[in-house]
UniProtKB/TrEMBL annotation:
InterPro entries: Aspartic_peptidase_A1 (IPR001461), Pepsin-like_dom (IPR034164), PEPTIDASE_A1 (IPR033121), Peptidase_aspartic_dom_sf (IPR021109). The active site is at D159, D340. Residues 37-50 have a biased composition (Basic and acidic residues). PROSITE patterns: PEPTIDASE_A1. Disulfide bonds join C172-C177, C376-C407. Belongs to the peptidase A1 family. GO terms for biological process: proteolysis. It comes from Bombardia bombarda. The keyword Disulfide bond applies. Residues 1-19 form the signal peptide. This is Aspartic peptidase domain-containing protein. One of its GO terms (molecular function) is aspartic-type endopeptidase activity.
Length: 454
């Protein structure tokens, strides 16, 4: 019996994460919504946003990537690398020249065989770089990733909020899977599928399947790594074009981490990647990820260094200054800000978000201080600060039209991470972000690119 118990513990990975955090009610106002709006879990029960254990033949185990609730008491936790000296850097983003005109292929919506529409990026000129696609509504950002012998191309959500990678599998019968491309044994002669199950509980969706190993290629960088092949998903994934999730978080997960493997195998000389996200309303989708360094053409001014404190627990999170509106602040405490490309909006503790919206004339909440209606003619930017440097988020990003003459703030009063802010794409569209997982002694090795706008 002891041997059986150990076997079960070794072949069941359950991970709780905060990543992939669009706001479903808001997303379903988008033209990208399709399929059922039912919120049912993979077993047909009402969807759970918190689950601390999973029981298999009477044995309850859990490997937790990060806890979102202090009352959770996981029975097993994943070991972490406590010696990492990581940092996040921000720079003011370099926008396309005013008045420039796009080529037709840069802006048209390219329709996939599975009927989702995506906005294709301009092909990067920088080495070890890949263009970042998006869904045309600024809700999800994803890369083209090649898998297996024949380099099957899938769209993978770019997720800095978790370290797990998975794709939709051919045997998955969930409606979301049937609406997407898949990858499995019939697509590659080198795929090695294991008997180890995995289950991931996201902030807005669940996925389960088995672990496998095969060649993975991104931005011309190729390695063999483990990833999940999903055979069950919730309906949350019906609304977005991506076929899986690429985990670029620092925390250990059920699968290998692409960035760590690339560094270990010498494909990259440094555990650094840099991200610039495009905006659907811009003339050109210039979204890009660069591995191993930065693309100096993507930002102006200095890159501001912010080290990751121990309390971030190996997540991409840095101390955050108080957000402000029209030069005013609400006297909020300094909290950690989790930097998450897999989240669509900005989330914060309800009390803090409520106090912040009191600075905005006409802002009102009708759902217990979670979402806030704001005047549609609001033009004032919101500002966030890191390392003493302030970054501006224009109204086109933080104010969303959700109905006729009705607008809501994209800053949500929901504690996605306990006692902290979670800054997703609403913020990240306005900065050039460098995720640096190496030991850093010189604090700002890339120097500056010169002030002003190019």
């Amino acid at each position: 019996m002891v041997g059986a118990a150990l076997l079960l513990q070794l072949t069941l990975w359950i991970v709780t994460v905060h990543a992939f955090y669009p706001w479903p009610e808001r997303v379903c106002h988008s033209s990208q919504c399709s399929g059922s709006k039912s919120e049912r879990d993979i077993n047909g029960d009402s969807r759970q946003t918190e689950r601390t254990t999973s029981t298999t033949e009477g044995i309850s185990v859990e490997l937790v990537q990060r806890a979102r609730n202090p009352n959770n008491d996981p029975s097993v936790t994943v070991a972490r690398d406590t010696n990492r000296d990581a940092a996040i850097r921000f720079a003011h983003i370099h926008s396309p020249l005013e008045g420039s005109r796009p080529r037709d292929e840069d802006t048209k919506l390219t329709r996939r065989e599975n009927t989702y529409s995506v906005v294709a990026p301009v092909t990067p000129t920088a080495t070890k770089s890949a263009g970042i696609f998006q869904d045309g509504a600024d809700y999800s950002y994803f890369l083209q990733v090649k898998y297996g012998t024949d380099e099957e191309t899938l769209y993978m959500l770019l997720d800095t909020g978790a370290g797990n990678t998975w794709v939709m599998g051919p045997t998955c019968k969930s409606k979301a899977c049937e609406m997407h491309n898949s990858f499995g044994p019939g697509d590659s002669t080198t795929l090695k599928q294991t008997e180890t199950d995995f289950s991931i509980i996201y902030g807005t969706g669940n996925v389960a399947g088995v672990l496998a190993n095969d060649t993975v290629s991104i931005a011309g960088l190729k390695t063999v790594m483990s990833f999940g092949i999903a055979n069950e998903t919730t309906s949350d994934f019906e609304h977005f074009p991506f076929d899986g999730i690429l985990g670029l978080g620092m925390s250990k997960g059920a699968t290998d981490n692409f960035l760590e493997l690339a560094k270990k195998e010498g494909i990259l000389t440094s555990s650094i990647f840099s991200v610039s996200l495009g905006r659907a309303s811009d003339w050109i989708n210039t979204g890009q990820i660069t591995f191993g360094g930065v693309d100096t053409a993507k930002y102006v001014g200095d890159i501001t260094y912010s080290s990751i404190p121990k309390e971030a627990n190996d997540d991409w999170a840095v101390p955050m200054g108080e957000p402000s509106y029209d030069g005013k602040k609400a006297g909020l405490p300094s909290l950690l800000g989790y930097i998450d490309t897999g989240s669509s909006f900005v989330f914060g503790p309800s009390s803090n978000v409520t106090a912040f919206h009191k600075l905005i004339t006409g802002a009102v909440s009708k759902d217990n201080n979670t979402s806030f209606e704001v005047p549609c003619d609001t033009k004032t930017p919101v500002t966030f600060s890191f390392g003493g440097v302030t970054y501006s988020v224009p109204s086109q990003d933080w104010v969303a039209e959700v109905g006729e003459n009705r607008c809501e703030s994209n800053i949500i009063g929901h504690e996605a991470m306990e006692g902290a802010w979670l800054l997703g794409d609403v913020f990240l569209k306005n900065v050039y972000t460098v995720f640096d997982g190496d030991h850093i002694s010189d604090r700002c090795p890339y120097g500056t690119s010169g002030g002003g706008r190019r």
